[in-house]
Amino acid sequence: MKPYPEAYIDYLLYFHAQRDYFECHEVMEEFWKEHPGDARSRTYVALIQIAVGMYHIRRGNRTGAVKMLQSAGRNAEAPHVLSLGLNPDKLQELLNQVWSSIEQDEFLYEDINLPITDPELIDFCLKECDRRGLIWQSPSLMEDEHLIQKHTRRDRSEVINERARQQQIRKEKGGAR
After folding, report:
1. Helix (H, G, I), strand (E, B) or coil at 46
2. Of these four, 76, 78, 128, 177, which has the most CB atoms within 10 Å of its CB?
């Protein structure tokens, strides 16, 4: 198996086995922040946005979901998506399909699976699921309020402060929004 970041493997397990999109977001965001010069930086952001989009969909925030999934599609750079063992064309197709069905009000929530093409990566994830007592591609537990509402219960003060700081910087540069 190609060497993949451990955080990425954790992301895949949260995404496909636990369906804990909040933890997907957290683990990839932490990794992304710790590796600012990584060539795959934009693609890591895309993975974060896919997870955020999924937890927005699951909670019924259609506008937020569409925004995140469209942005993920722009950030998912094909060579880097491929280097993470995913099919870039199928990923774009999946993202487009989900956000367009939401916009057309035709989407009923359903977990998605990322198009993993590396058989060794799939095998590793299956073995890791077995080791952890998880089931690969299990469905979301929609009755688990803790899972569904997890991101709304976290301390957002750091995020809010950073947004305010960035807004102040833009304002000082004359580009306030």
Report:
1. helix
2. 76
